[in-house]
Specification:
P-loop_NTPase, binds adenosine-5'-triphosphate, 8 helices, alpha/beta, binds magnesium ion, Rossmann fold, single chain, 256 residues, six-stranded mixed sheet, globular
Length: 256
Amino acid sequence: MLTVNHVSKTYSGKVAYRALEDVSFDVKDGEYVGIMGPSGSGKTTLLNIMSTIDSPTSGTVQLDGEIPHALNEKQLASFRAKKLGFVFQNFQLLDTLTVEENMVLPLTLDGSHSISEMQDRVWQLADKLGIREILNNRIYELSGGQIQRTAIGRALIHKPKLLLADEPTGNLDSRATTDVMELLHKMNKEEQTTILMVTHDPVVSSYCDRILFIKDGQLFNELYKGEHRESFYQNIVQVLSLMGGDNRDLSSVRLP
Ligand SMILES: Nc1ncnc2c1ncn2[C@@H]1O[C@H](COP(=O)(O)OP(=O)(O)OP(=O)(O)O)[C@@H](O)[C@H]1O
Ligand SMILES: [Mg+2]
C-alpha cells in the first residue's frame, strides 16, 4: 500500500540540514505502524513527505499504486481528498463550528456526497468515537480528548486508505490517551484503515503491529508485535533507551 524508497530530505536554508537520509520501508494494506525516535530525528518530516505536504529531496514514495509527488496540483488535491486522512497535533478544527460541521467538512468540499449519505456516515462514526452526544457542540466547548476524537472523526469521515497521525495523544491525559488509542486500534481493525502514527509514548505504540525507530534521520530499528503486548512494550522501551536522545517519556512510564 505504501513504499518509501531511498527517501532523503535536506532542508535548504542558511545552513542546509539533512533531516532524512536514505529511508526505505514498506507498509502493507491494513497495517498499523508506529514511528518513534528522539525529538528532531525526522519523524514529522517523514510524515509530511508521506502526506504530500512536503516532497523528498531524493527518493520516491509510492502510495496505493500512485507516485503522489509526480501528480500535478489538481490531481494531487483529489488524491489527498480521496485517499488520505490526517490528524496533526494542532488539530486544525474550526473553533466556532460544531463537531458535526467539522466532521463533514472534507465531504462537503469533495461535493460528491448526498446529505443523507453524509448524515449516515457522521452518525456511524460518531457512535464508534463516542461523540454522538456532542455532535451539536462547538469546538470551544469541548475537552482536549473530545477535540482529539473529533479530529480523528474528521480524518476518517471519507474512509481514507491511509491515516497519518502525528502524536495524536500528545497533549492528552492518560484517560483520554487510552480512549484515543483504543479507538485507533478499533478503526484499524473494523474499517481496515492503514495507520501510520508518530508517538513518543511506548504504551500508545504497543497497540501497533510494528514500530519503526528513527534516529538522526535514519532507520535505526524495527520491531514487530508478536504474541504479547506486554513483551512488545518491554522491547519498545529497551530500543528507546538504546537510542538515547530525549527520554522524557521513559521517566514517567505508565504500566500498560
Ligand atoms: N522547515 C524546516 N526547515 C529547516 N529545518 C527543519 C524544518 N523542519 C524541520 N527541520 C529540522 O529537521 C529536523 C527533523 O525535524 P522533525 O520535525 O522532522 O523532527 P521530529 O522527529 O518530528 O521531532 P519532534 O519529536 O520534536 O516532533 C530537526 O532538526 C528540525 O530542526
Ligand atoms: Mg515532530
